Structures are given as structure tokens and as C-alpha cells.
Amino acid sequence: MNYQTTRKALQGVAFTTAIPFTDNSEKNIKYEDYKNNLQAIEDAGGQLYIPCGNTGEYYSLTHDERVNVSSSTVEAVSTDSVVIAGVAGSTKTVKKLSEEYNSLGVDGIMIMHPDHTYLHETGIEQYYRNIAKATDLPVVLYKRGPEISNKVVTKLAGVENIIGIKYAVNDIEGFSKIVESVPNDFVCVNGIAERFAPAFALEGAEGFTTGIGNFVPELPLKLHSALSNNNFEQARRIRNLARPYETLRAESGDNNRISAANNIPAVKYGMDLAGLEGGPVREPLVNLSGSDRQRAEKYYSEIMDSTIPIE
């Protein structure tokens, strides 16, 4: 397995792909529309795709749907692109899914943040080690909270096929300490998208993930280009353009106290606005409220009408 190819891809823009569902009670996956959505990203220059992540509503998919979505991703993008498919659940579940992904031709797996009521730090470390040992695929960690400590990340960074981490916590100091403690070829990715890309880049982030890239792929690609060229003035201008929509995504929505519930429905509505196929979300999420849809329309128009060329 060529780990270097996947490492290099992680240093760019990672498109966390959203899944279009039918607008009825069944909410079946619209696979052909999904492929068309991916083609629009690739036409814009996207080269790294993460299906079956949180933006892809992993926990609302069945096992077979996860396999089929990952298969559709591999089929839709060019052989030069890289696909890192999301996995989560018990060790046995992840091993089985990884085996099936491997047979499809994915280029790596990303292990979602631990979703378990009771955790032990030693057990978390062993969980990742057991999964990595069971596959030849490159493995990417995903940190969304304190359950995965810097100490555990540093230890796991020494495992041959654990090649990087998606760091999705708004903690610059913690991220900086991880960058300083891991091997040079371990790729540290900013996992909280465009709003924080300039700050994380200064602390050593070699790439970042994007959700709004599903409907404005040129924006994160140009942001990454500005950062790669140390043009932080341009990077901040692009970041500021994305910020209102990203702020909307981070909100809880109407009649809800749980943070970031708007995240995925805002991405999907943006896709609808762009003439792609976004569609509804599956429970336990809900679609954007009417007022939030109006805000999304305003922010989307501001991006498209900007004097910063993104097309």
C-alpha cells in the first residue's frame, strides 16, 4: 500500500461528502445524483474525498449503504483522486467494513471519534492499534473531543499505517502541541474547516476539511492555494467570505439546545441552491428552518457575488 500518496492528498483540501436522499418517508440514497455531485467537485479541482463521515451522516446509514456510498465514490472520481472512507463502531464492525472498503479500492480509512458512553484511555489506544493491525490501508484518526488525548495521538503516530489526524477541536494550543510531538510524516489536518484554516495553518496544519466545498468547491481550493503560498491577506479575505455560512452551520437551529445541528442541513441546502442534489437529512437531524434557509440564501449569494473570483 502506497501510504505516501494518501499522505500527500491529506495535505490538501478534504471534501467531506454529503449524501442526497429521496424527499419522502423512505429517504433512500440517490446514488446517481451523488455521483453527479462528486463530478462537480472534481471538475473544480477536488482530489480528496471522505465519504461516510459526519457530513455523510455515517450514523444514519446502514452497513450496506456505507459500502455502497464508498463504492459509488470510487466509481465517480478519477483514479488520480484519493478516497478515505469513514468507519466507526465496534472493533469487529470496523474491521469488517475496512475489509469491504479495501476490496472496493478505497485509499484509506478514517476512524470516527469514539462514540461510547464509557471509555478508558488505554482501551482507546488499543482500539486504534487493533484496527490498524488488521488492515493494510492507511488509517486517519479523527479527534472531536478530549477523549483522544495528545498522549494517545503521539503514541499512535508511531504506528506505520496510522498516517494522520483530522483535528476537529477549536484548540490551537492543543493542536500545536500535537504537531510538535508527532513524526514529520504524520499529517495533521484542520478538521473544523474554512473559518479556522489560517490560524491552524500557522500552527502546522497541512490541509483542512470542507463541508461547504460540496457546493462551492472553488472557495476552499482557492483558500488552500493562498495558504500554501503564504498569502495570508488573501486567505483571510476568502475565510471572511465563508464565515457567515460556516457560522450558520455551527448553530443549533430553531427549538434546539444541541450545538451544530445546522451543520449538515445547511450544506445540503447550499447544494440545492447551487443546482446540485442536496435534499433532506435523516433523523435525528432536521432540515433548516425557514428563517435559516433565508440566511443560507443570503450568504450563498454573497459568496457567488463576491469580487473574489471563486469560479
Describe this protein's structure:
The active site is at 142 (proton donor/acceptor), 166 (schiff-base intermediate with substrate). InterPro entries: Aldolase_TIM (IPR013785), DapA-like (IPR002220). The chain is α/β, with parallel strands linked by helices. It has a single domain (3-229), classed as TIM Barrel. It is 46% helix and 12% strand. The chain is built from 12 helices and 8 strands. The protein has helices at 3-10, 31-44, 63-76, 91-104, 121-133, 150-156, 172-181, 197-202, 218-228, 232-250, 263-273, 290-304, and strands at 13-16, 48-50, 82-87, 108-111, 139-143, 162-167, 187-190, 207-210. It has an 8-stranded parallel beta barrel with strand order 1-2-3-4-5-6-7-8, surrounded by 5 helices. It is globular and about 45 Å long. The two termini are 35 Å apart. The mean pLDDT is 96.
